[in-house]
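TICKET: design request
STATUS: open
ATTACHED STRUCTURE:
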């Protein structure tokens, strides 16, 4: 296995952690270590966890720290190889046929090729971070195809030939774990489960992301959100919701709303599901922060 202990000057998990924090992503030791190992061992990193725990953002922050372009393949139900690799630009080919008349025309010229994320990453592997986002949304067939791609970083285009990466690009996969991923795919990756941040870290994230929020407000919101996450909700609030709720309540408070009320009135930025709201509204007493100023 090719080991690359130093990439973009990052030579330890601690160095990577400092760089991520400087880029406004507050990574804990476990995530920094997993990310460092994935870089050093040149293996993709698989980040799994509930929606909103910071998986996509972690990949983007890593791209920023490494000075690489983040090329994102957003997976969805029914995604197929063409959407991930390349497509031929039919309208342009048609137009060219009309303009060429009797002249020779290569219909499979580069100019007609639409590179999709996987091909884009292969063409420029040393400057790319390939983010394969929410892979659990795709079906098993697509997952098998991805596994093959991640084994040889080669794409064969029947009309023009084979494209092979000169080195493996940095790859991050994320999954919200709506289904289990194939064993073989996990084996190929450095795996890390991202949990919701602990209270102290989440308060720091709020402060880092929302400069208007007072520390007491951040801490109070974090505690309330922890209560909400313990309830049987369809859409438990993620970290983004914590940040927004703190920001929204702070705004209402600055405009004169009193504290518990400022949180209650802005609950719609924390809970975004009608059933969840209906369930929680009568239960908010005792969950909402009291004094936060
Ligand atoms: N460790 C963190 N440091 C800074 N911001 C974070 C962190 N974790 C989550 N966030 C915030 O939460 C938001 C949602 O995270 P996101 O990456 O979209 O979640 P996921 O991809 O897991 O659903 C991000 O945009 C970011 O503002
Ligand atoms: Mg995401």
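STATUS: resolved
RESOLUTION: sequence designed for all positions
ATTACHED SEQUENCE:
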């Amino acid at each position: 296995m090719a080991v690359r202990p130093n990439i973009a000057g990052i030579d330890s998990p601690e160095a990577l952690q400092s760089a991520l924090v400087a880029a406004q992503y507050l990574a804990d030791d476990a995530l920094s270590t997993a990310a460092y190992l994935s870089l050093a061992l040149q293996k993709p990193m698989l980040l799994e966890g509930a929606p909103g725990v910071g998986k996509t953002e972690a990949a983007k922050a890593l791209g920023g720290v490494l000075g690489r372009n983040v090329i994102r393949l957003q997976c969805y139900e029914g995604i197929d190889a063409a959407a991930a690799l390349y497509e031929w630009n039919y309208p342009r080919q048609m137009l060219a046929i009309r303009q060429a008349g009797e002249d020779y025309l290569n219909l499979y010229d580069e100019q007609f090729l639409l590179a999709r994320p996987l091909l884009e990453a292969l063409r420029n592997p040393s400057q790319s971070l390939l983010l394969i986002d929410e892979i659990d949304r795709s079906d098993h067939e697509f997952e098998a195809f991805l596994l093959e791609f991640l084994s040889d970083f080669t794409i064969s285009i029947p009309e023009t030939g084979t494209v092979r990466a000169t080195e493996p690009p940095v790859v991050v996969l994320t999954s919200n774990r709506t289904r289990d991923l194939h064993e073989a795919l996990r084996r190929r990756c450095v795996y890390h489960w991202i949990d919701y941040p602990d209270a102290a870290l989440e308060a720091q994230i709020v402060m880092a992301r929302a400069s208007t929020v007072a520390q007491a407000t951040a801490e109070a919101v974090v505690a309330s959100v922890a209560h909400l996450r313990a309830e049987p909700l369809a859409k438990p609030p993620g970290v983004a919701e914590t940040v927004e709720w703190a920001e929204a309540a702070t705004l209402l408070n600055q405009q004169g709303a009193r504290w518990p009320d400022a949180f209650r009135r802005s609950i719609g930025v924390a809970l975004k599901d009608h059933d969840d709201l209906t369930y929680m509204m009568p239960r908010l007493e005792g969950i909402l922060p009291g004094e936060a100023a």
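CLOSING REMARK: Residues 215-230 form the longest helix (16 residues). Residues 55-56, 133, 174 surround magnesium ion (ligand 2) (CB under 6 Å).
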